[in-house]
Amino acid sequence: MLSRIKVHTTRFLKPLTKFLCSAGVKPNHLTLAGLLLGIASALMIANSKPFLGSVFILLSGFMDMLDGALARNCGKVSPLGGFLDSVFDRYVDVAIFTALGYYTGKWLVAMLAVTGALLVSYTRARAEHVIDKCDVGIGERSERLLIVVLGLLSGYVYYSLIVVAIIAHITAVHRTAYTLKRGG
Predict the structure, then answer these.
(1) Residues annotated as catalytic (active site), given as ranges
(2) How far apart are CA 124 and CA 149, in angstroms?
(3) In this predicted model, what pLDDT tens digit does every residue of 78-96 receive, in sequence order?
(4) For domain 2-183, which CATH number applies: 1.10.10.10, 3.90.79.10, 1.20.120.1760, 1.20.140.10?
């Protein structure tokens, strides 16, 4: 859902990306920064620092948004960069949900949430071998991470994990059904 505003964020970030591009910053630098910030968020969460964990999740998410905007605005879009971004995003997802399982002690729900998160990404990747585009669903990565941040900030982490698990699996099933309908 939030991915639909990508064109607007790319335009909004254009001055910053032009500056970064002229300073020699490459999209993969920001992708790596996003990975490191995501791992830092997981460490903060696992060490019972939910506020700092939230801050690092948001910073990691900003780097994830900025790397793509930098690539698009500076003509540096590449299949390898997209691949690296996707792989690092999955590592961050696994780190954060593992930390949330440790923090809450609710391992089953955390594993359902991370499984759903991984399946959202996987169903899209596989679907796009069958159909042109498969970005449908209510539980994309940005929505899931915002729900986690809200849970960490409000103290309702367990419930945020439940919501993430549900919407992620709904999205994976939706993408599967969408691909079956469009690809058949």
Answers:
(1) 89
(2) 24
(3) 999 999 999 999 999 999 9
(4) 1.20.120.1760
